[in-house]
Design a protein that fits this description.
Elements (H helix, E strand, L loop, with lengths): L1 E2 L3 E2 L10 H5 L11 H9 L4 E6 L20 H11 L3 E4 H21 L8 E2 L4 H10 L13 H17 L6 E7 L3 H5 L16 E4 H10 L21 H4 L6 H15 L17 E8 L2 E9 L1 H12 L7 E5 L20 H14 L9 H11 L5 H7 L13
Parallel strand pairs: 3-4, 3-6, 5-10, 6-7, 9-10
Antiparallel strand pairs: 1-2, 8-9
The structure holds iron/sulfur cluster (SF4).
């Protein structure tokens, strides 16, 4: 595909968020199709094919089939994926909780030891935002959290901790992720995302549109699917994990855990709700144990650009900032089903906030599977093993214009 100036998209500094595909007025654009690679892995008896389902996927996968939103549950998608032959179906919400444990710990460390730290700290779970930041505002690159995205953390844990639990060679695990996202296709190919066993931590990233095509290709009748629970232990999550898919969700989830890390007490799970909503640039201040924390949330790269310019101009200052490249966050993601002229990020995001509201556990540190992985494998957040598997150096790879 060509871009401005006659260049190739792979040589450009495109954020790869995919909004051009979901909003192309003539439907002329589409993503690379990786479904054949997944079908080949499913047909290979030597490979253990593990798939993870991202938070926002459960809000939208049933749309092209006309499956009502309340019936298009994550559990029915689990049944469809098992029917296709995936060996284990896990929930990226689990590793979103893991991301929160690491990212909130980073934030608390920065607040405790601010000497030499540049604020704000930025979230880094959106690869479209990370690409944009590195290309257009590189002075902020060192302020990105070093925590990997939930998808990448999942892959690193699947090919280390989970391989150990299964007692198998991690090289036999083929890790697929189902994402609302196009930028993740680029993220899985970052050469340094291979911390578990030397293979890529995630082998293939599929959009929801690709998975829906696979469901059709397998002639699965989505209206007759029963519900199946995620496999364990990487299938247990809290409400904090599920809201990653909506703008403000990462911030809110991180603050729930940061509050506990600072005070040793549970906060009201809705204490940080001021950062919810579809406004493109939101800001709020919260008091945590007598310290005022100034935060901002931006979704959509136009809003991110305005916020970064204001930061550069000294017009605003914050301690912690969440940026998601797609308007409304991942529930408006570039890899979700396309509906001409309709913006569904709000409706889909409401599904996630509803799942959080009714969840038994709403804070990442309460997740028993997260407690187990730290107790049995990682030690503590930011431990040496956690740093190796779950963190990255945002400067260890270059955007095309830096090469
Ligand atoms: Fe991908 Fe979500 Fe970022 Fe959009 S907002 S680029 S879907 S991670």
């Amino acid at each position: 595909m060509g871009v401005r100036g006659g260049g190739l998209i792979e040589d450009s500094d495109c954020a790869l968020c995919g909004q051009c595909i979901t909003h192309c007025p003539t439907g002329a654009l589409r993503e690379r199709d990786d479904t054949d690679r997944v079908f080949d892995a499913l047909a290979d008896p030597d490979q253990i094919v593990v798939v993870q389902v991202a938070p926002a996927v459960r809000t939208a996968w049933g749309e092209p089939f006309g499956l009502p939103r309340e019936r298009a549950t994550a559990q029915r998608l689990v049944t469809a994926l098992k029917g296709m032959g995936f060996d284990y179906v896990f929930d990226t919400d689990f590793s979103a909780d893991l991301t929160i444990m690491e990212e909130a710990s980073e934030l608390v460390e920065h607040l405790k030891h601010p000497e030499g730290v540049q604020f704000p700290m930025f979230t880094s779970c959106c690869p479209g935002w990370v690409r944009y930041c590195k290309a257009r505002h590189p002075r902020f690159t060192d302020q990105l959290s070093t925590s990997k995205s939930p998808g990448q953390m999942f892959g690193a844990i699947a090919k280390s901790y989970y391989a150990d639990l299964l007692g198998v060679d991690p090289h036999r695990i083929f890790c697929v992720e189902i994402m609302p996202c196009l930028a993740k296709k680029s993220e899985v190919d970052i050469p340094v995302m291979n911390d578990a066993c030397g293979d890529p931590d995630v082998d293939v990233s599929l959009t929801v549109r690709e998975v829906d095509r696979m469901i059709r290709a397998e002639h699965i009748d989505v209206f007759s699917l029963a519900e199946t629970e995620f496999d364990q232990p990487l299938g247990t999550a809290t409400g904090a994990g599920v809201i990653f898919g909506a703008t403000g969700g990462v911030m809110e989830a991180a603050l729930r855990s940061a509050y506990y890390m600072v005070t040793g007490e549970n906060c009201d799970a809705d204490a940080f709700r001021d950062v919810r909503g579809l406004d493109g640039w939101k800001e709020a201040s919260f008091d945590i144990a007598g310290t005022t924390l100034r935060v901002a949330v931006a979704s959509g790269l136009g809003n991110a650009a305005r916020l970064l310019s204001a930061l550069e101009g000294g017009e605003v200052s914050y301690d912690f900032v969440e940026v998601m490249a797609c308007p409304g966050g991942c529930s408006g993601g570039g890899g979700l089903p396309i509906h001409d002229g309709k913006e569904l990020a709000g409706v889909r995001g409401d599904v996630l906030w509803g799942l959080d509201r009714t969840a038994k556990l709403r804070r990442s540190y309460e997740n028993p599977s997260i407690q187990a992985v730290y107790r049995d494998y990682l030690g503590t957040p930011l431990s040496e093993r956690a740093e190796k598997l779950l963190h990255t150096n945002q400067r260890a790879w270059k955007m095309p214009s830096e090469a």
